[in-house]
Structures are given as C-alpha cells and as structure tokens.
Amino acid sequence: xxxxxxxxxxxxxxxxxxxxxxxxxxxxxxxxxxxxxxxxxxxxxxxxxxxxxxxxxxxxxxxxxxxxxxxxxxxxxxxxxxxxxxxxxxxxxxxxxxxxxxxxxxxxxxxxxxxxxxxxxxxxxxxxxxxxxxxxxxxxxxxxxxxxxxxxxxxxxxxxxxxxxxxxxxxxxxxxxxxxxxxxxxxxxxxxxxxxxxxxxxxxxxxxxxxxxxxxxxxxxxxxxxxxxxxxxxxxxxxxxxxxxxxxxxxxxxxxxxxxxxxxxxxxxxxxxxxxxxxxxxxxxxxxxxxxxxxxxxxxxxxxxxxxxxxxxxxxxxxxxxxxxxxxxxxxxxxxxxxxxxxxxxxxxxxxxxxxxxxxxxxxxxxxxxxxxxxxxxxxxxxxxxxxxxxxxxxxxxxxxxxxxxxxxxxxxxxxxxxxxxxxxxxxx
Length: 429
Ligand code: IMP
What we know:
Elements: E1 11-16, H1 24-31, E2 37-40, E3 49-53, E4 56-60, E5 73-76, E6 81-82, H2 84-96, E7 106-109, E8 113-114, H3 117-130, H4 142-150, H5 163-181, H6 187-195, H7 198-201, E9 205-206, H8 208-217, E10 222-225, H9 250-256, E11 265-271, E12 274-276, H10 289-297, E13 310-312, E14 314-315, H11 316-326, E15 330-334, E16 344-353, E17 356-358, H12 365-370, E18 372-379, H13 396-409, E19 413-417, E20 425-427
Parallel strand pairs: 1-10, 1-11, 2-5, 2-10, 5-7, 6-8, 7-9, 11-15, 14-16, 15-19
Antiparallel strand pairs: 3-4, 12-13, 16-17, 16-18, 19-20
Bound molecules: inosinic acid.
C-alpha cells in the first residue's frame, strides 16, 4: 500500500482543486499501481495528461492515465463525451509507444455520449459569436456535446448498435444545428467517421455501472481519475468560464453510477501557485514579468492546445472552497520547485466585496471589478528542490510556505512535487 493512501480506503478519487493543469497525472502514475480499475467520469478529450516514463512520453486525453500500469483496467464512464475516432487513435498511439494491450483493457460505457465532428464546428461558431465574452474553450466540442445530452438529443455509444437509428439521429441533429447556426454540417461525413471505427469500438462497450458494481463486490480497488479542476466545474466553478461537466467529486456518482459511500477517500491536487487557460476571473493573476517567469519555469503551456497558461499566486480562498466542496482528505501540493528563485511569494487569503467577506471567487464581471483581496507575503528560497525526499530536508522557507498553505486551506498536505521527474515527489508521514 502506498503511504499516501493510508486511511483513504479502497476506492479513491483524485480531484483538481484549481483551474485544471494542477499536475494530477503524476500522482495518478505514482499510485495507480495500487488499483485494479481506473475510471474517467466526466469531460472528454479537452484534458491532456503527459507522463514520461524512462524517457518515453505517453499522452492521455480521454483514457485514464492510470492505465500506464500493465494490469490496470480503464473505464470511460457514462458521464464522459467520447470522440470515437480520436479515442481509437489514442489507443493506437499508446500501443505504439509501448503500452501493453491497451485495447483489451478498456471499457467504454454504452451510455457515454458520442462527441461528433459537428460538436467541434458548433464550439468554434459559438466562440466566434461570443466575441470578447468567449470562454476560450479547447475547441474540442465539449460544450455542444453536453448541450445535446441535456437537450435529450445526444447520440450515445449504444446507438452504434442500431445503424438505422444512428443515421436518423445524425441527419436530424445536423439539420437542426446547421439551420440554427447557419452553418453547413455534413451528415454523411459524420456517419462515415463512425462507420470507420464501429467494429473496433463495439467489443469495448459495456454497462460500466454493472462492471464497477461487480468489481466493488469482488473487493477490487478503484481509482476515480478527475480531469480539469473544481474551479472549472459547471456548477461550482467560475461560470460561465468553466467546462460543461461536473468535474468534482459529485461527478463520480453521476458519471459512473457509483454511490457516494463507495468513494472512500479523496485526494485533492493543488499547484503551489495558480494557472488557468482560457478566459474568466483569475484574481491572483500575475499579468506581468513575474507571471512570465513562472510560466517559463513551470513550462505552463497547455498539453491539449499548446496555449500559454495564465499564471498567478496561490489562491487560498478558491482552493479552500474547492477542498471543502469536494470533500478532500489529503492534498498533493505540486510543482513547489517552480517557485525556487523567487524573492518573495504571495498568497490570496481573503476576498471582500462591499465590506462582506466572500468564500468563493465571484462569477459576475461587476463583482470582479470591485473585488478587494488580501494577500500574505512569504520569503522565497533559492535552492532547487529536485532530489529532496524528506519534508525536513526542504529549505526552511519552502517548509514554512507549505505549512502556511496547509493552515490556510485546512487540509493536510501529504505529498509534495519537487521537480518534473517521476521520482521528484515526496511524502509526509
Ligand atoms: P472546454 O472544456 O473545451 O469547453 O473549455 C472550457 C474551459 O475549460 C476553457 O477555459 C478551457 O481552457 C478550460 N479547460 C478545459 N479542459 C481543461 C484542462 O484539461 N485543463 C485546463 N483547462 C481546461
């Protein structure tokens, strides 16, 4: 048993607590050998996890990155939106990179919605129409795919099993969206794209709820692998600058059909500073040279889109709200090493609006314009942290920074990322 997992029980969730890109993949890689099954429960190929093992790079978009372990079964749950040709390509690429037998270790929910080519076109058109209010999406069609799901006009993986109905639904949806938005959508192209992968996909489809129920009954261990971060959750994040699915702990129950009491522990991933891609409120943003320096030191460029990430100080208010709402038991603080060399560090400790303390980052533009924030300043440290494996061996100021964050957010920090390498991860007792 990995020591971070002590007291967390057999079915553990990993949840991002900021705006995504907290570095979840590295912890998943470190602990997933302790689990029999790893699951994605929401989102789609908007996520991007890059893991380097012994010099070989593996890129995961929709598949759970815990699948790096050769025996692990991966589940793509009903709460996800799946671009099937892209998923088949991801499987093929991972096989080529040397990962064993990926296709035979994947289960896709019959109820997962298919992300169609037209969803990407609609995503682009909606962003164009929003002008300076645009969300800055990843362009992967995520919002339109979930819109169809909620409007009860989505196409699910199970529809692949009925060719005639599938064709009818595709034609109907292309006509509907094409007319609504005044764009040209080609149903034949969509049908052919699905036909090209139908036979490959069919054996992977299953009732993933039943599969997971049986696994849990048999005492197997399950890892729920979150994508994005709590502040991008469609309900709990900085709406409308969010993704379109429930990405926090609640999404596990709906996106996999797992009852809440079966989630026995939650690990929250928080970066030692904050980043966000796309538009939307980010009160601790450093839109200056310092932000640029952090971006360079932290290689803060999107794994899916390559976009530079906006960088800023650690936001203790936003992170604390995420931890409380997601029910986090233990934190993995990531990328502490990126802050080495900064003279001083700041942390947002309080938000006030019209004399009232706020517990979340406000969502409306007016509130954000008037928002007052309090910051606390900490002395920095110069030493690189890579290769340090005991908390006690960190530079004194780094230790003090970690302890202060822990106090501010109210949840124990039990793992700390000290460098990009797989081994640059230290655990506290
Ligand atoms: P969408 O999920 O592509 O619709 O994008 C909505 C918002 O979520 C945009 O601000 C994206 O940049 C952000 N987003 C989506 N996926 C990720 C991710 O994996 N990491 C960081 N931000 C993301």
